[in-house]
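Lab manual, section 2.4: Encoding a predicted structure.

Procedure: take the sequence of the chain (460 residues), apply the prediction step described in section 2.3, and record the output as C-alpha cells. A sample record is shown.
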Amino acid sequence: MTSRDPDAVLMEHLSAMSLRQDRAPSPRAPGQPLEVLLSGYFGAGNTGSEMRASEIVRHMRRLLGPDNVAFSALSLTNDLPRDLFPGVRACTLSGFYPDVVAAEIAKCHAVVACEGSTFKSTFSEVLTALMAGTLGAAARAEQPAIAYGAEVGTLTPRLEAYVRDNARGALIMARNQASVERAEALGLRTLSGADTAWTFTSSPPEVARQWLARAGWNGVDPIVVFCPVNPFWWPVRAEPATFAAMQRTGQGRDRHYGAVFFHSNDEIASARYGVFIRQLADAFERLRVARNAFPVVIGMDRVDAAACADLIARMPFGAAVFRSGEHDVGDLIAILRQADLVVSARFHALVGAMPSGAPSIGLAFDERVGNLMRGAEPGRALAADAPDLADQIVAAAGRLDPDVVRAEARARIGAELDGMARMAHGLRAEFGRFAPDLSLPDLHDGPVGALPLDIQRILA
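Recorded output:
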C-alpha cells in the first residue's frame, strides 16, 4: 500500500513464490488425470485471449486424451464463458495475487501459459511476471511448464532480468520467429510454433448476417470494420493508494482497469490518443463514402468500449457497434469474416478475419502486428502514432488486391498449421516424460482435428 513501486513489490513476491524450495511436487498416481493450471489473461473479456485459450484447451484434450487432463485457470473473475471453457475451473485472483497463485500451483501437475503476449512490457509487468513465475515454479518442480503459442517482445530491463531468472526450464513454444530469437536470447528453451487462434471456429455466416441486418445493413453494401483501442494508456500498473482513494471519493475511476490496477493517462498520452481517434474517424468516413460501405465498429476487449464510443462520436453518420461482453466470441469473429475491409489495432481481429480472405490493415503500437504482417504486401502494418495515419490507411486500402491478400492468407494459414503440428508433438513429448503411463490418443486425422470450414475453403 505504501510502496513507491507497487509493481516491483508484487513481482518480488511472485518471484519468491516461484523460487520456493519447500513445495513438493503435487503427487500423481498412475492413471490419475493431470491437473493443468492455465496461466493467462482470463476473465477480462478479451476476445483474442478467449479465442486462443479455448483452442489450447481443445487441443490439449485432443492431444493428451480428454480423460487424462483436468484444467484450472487463473482468472480475474469467477466466470469463464462455458461455451469456450467447458469443465475448466476458475481460480479467481481475489486477494493478494502471490498467495492465490502459490495455493493453486501446489495443487497442479503442470502449468501452461495461455496469453499470447506472454513476455512483454506493453500491457502489464505483473501479468508477465505472473506467467514467468508460474512457469518457473512448475519447471523447478520438474513438472511440464509450457508457454503455448507465445509472443516474446520488448521487455524493460528489470522485466527481462525477471523472466530470465524465473522462467528457466520452461519450454517456450513461440508463435513467430522473432519471438523464438528473443526467447533464446533470454536463455529459454524454444520451439517454433503458432498462435492457436487460427483454428478457432466462428459462428456460422448466417448468424453474422443476422446481427448485421439488425444493425441496419441492407445485405448488399460492402462492410468496412474498424477495431479501435487506446494504444497510449498502457501499461496498467498497481496503484493501491489510488484504489483506496477511489473507493472513498470516486477519483480515478475513469482509468481504473480492475482490482488495484490503473491505466496510464497523463496529458501527453491523452493528447496522443485524441489525435489517433481523429485520424481513425477521418479514414473511416473517407472509406465509407468512397466505397458506399456499411460501417462497423468492433470492440475486441471490454476496455475498448471507450475507444469505440469516442470513434463513433466523431463519425457524422455513426456506425453499427459490436462489443466484447455483449456478443459471443464466435459471433464477433463471424462478423469480422463478413467484412470487405478490416482496419484493426487488435492482433486477434486480424487473425480472426484472415481465414475469410478479408483484406486487412494492422495498426501497430508494438511488434505484434508487424510480426503478423511480415511477408505480406507492403502497407499492411501501419504505425498507430503516425501523424498522417488517416492518409496512410486510405492509401493502403486502395492498394490492397483481394486476390493477393487471399493468396497470402492461404500461405500464412498453411504455415501456422505446420507450427501447430510442431507444438502438438512437443506438448505430447513434454507430458509423456512426466507421465509415461498416459495412453495418448491416435492422431490419424491430424494434430488439431477437423479444420473450420472457413479454413478449409481458403486452403482449397
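Check your result against the sample. The chain is about 45% helix and 15% strand.
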